[in-house]
Amino acid sequence: MNKKIIKKIAAVSLAFMMTLSIGQTKSLAAKKINISRVSGNNRYDTSAQISRLISSKSQFVVLVSGENEADGLAGGVLASLLKAPVLLTSKDTLPSVIENRIKSLEAKYIYILGGENSISKNVEERINSFGNVKTQRISGTNRFDTAAKIAGITKDMDGISDNRYFAIANGFNWPDSLSASGYLANFKIPLLLTDSKSLSKESAAFIENNFVNRVIIIGGKGSVPEHILPKLTPARLSGKDRYDTSLSIAKDGFKNPVTVIITSGERYEDALSAAPLANYIQGPILLASKGKVSDDILKYIIKDTDINRVIIVGGRTLLPDYIFKEIAPGRIPQEIGHPDEKPVG
After folding, report:
1. For residue 301, which of 250, 235, 241, 227 has the smallest C-alpha distance?
2. Burial level of 132, CB count in 10 A (0-12/13-18/19+)?
């Protein structure tokens, strides 16, 4: 072939590839993602701020410890069934911001998750002193028993049939449970807890007594090995680490999300309150480290999906603005008052 013709073909091919590349870059850059943040002065205030995004009034509140994640891990599904916020409290004193929020919600029923070692009798008595509020404490001998009791209540509340899915996660590995809480809340899937060595007797009793035959394992084989569930054929949602697990749950649990939540994968407090918000927006909870949103999560948000809104749950100490610069170039995430409002910035 004539060398001039070859050069022309090469030039045309190069121009075509450059045009295609530019087009793809423009297409990616043209996808505007609204990004906003919900946070408070502390973990208790953050939970109150999250509740304001969901509802101005609520008959029900789910109250969990802000100092110990154990009993709150299974609370997201209960809250979603009740259309209730999850609020945090300290062990011995009901924070004023939470007391004020319970009153402004005009709540009538408060579910307290966990025993008096997590949330003391003093807190319960303080709530009862409001006069027109009833409290119900859901607690067991340990975190596994508490989760099983919560699962039993949600099963009865939702009329869950015997062949309905249940989820199980490691009760000592909070990131997997909390990144799954949005998915579980959306699909009303109760959560049981176990450890990595054997199926907890409380979860085993629940499975047997409720004829459970379908289980979703949250987390890898190191967290929940399949051999502890010999009578079941489980599905599994997991990844190479906590961040990848949250992405796996998002991909498998949500077909076409348009809004996602990003919260810290290093501290549990803010994620405890995020499940009802995830249920409200019908989107997943993704985890980020203090210094980075993983490349795979960035790709999922920016390129692989139709996501057009990101809500950061938590303050700038754990989730600084700069880690989100690729999601929303040149814009600083601003506080929002409602998930449906147009964010500033």
Report:
1. 250
2. exposed
pLDDT in tens, 89-99: 999 999 999 99
Using CA atoms, how far apart are residues 337 and 345, in angstroms rounded to an integer? 14
State which H helix or E strand residue 61 sits in. Answer: strand 60-65
The CA distance from 121 to 23, in Å, is 63
Residues 308 and 34: beta-carbon distance below 8 Å? yes
Per-residue pLDDT of 152-163, as tens digits, reads: 998 888 665 445
Name the residue ranges covered by the structural domains of the chain.
30-330
Packing angle of the helix pair 96-105, 43-54 (nearest 10 deg): 10
Which candidate, 247, 255, 312, 316, places its Cα nearest to that of 282?
A: 255
CA dihedral 40, 44, 48, 50 (to 10 degrees): 60
Q: How many of the other CB atoms lie within 10 Å of CB of 227?
A: 8
Up-side HSE of residue 207: CA atoms within 13 Å toward CB?
26
- Read off the pTM: 0.86
What are the DSSP E strand ranges found in 93-214?
109-113, 134-138, 166-170, 191-194
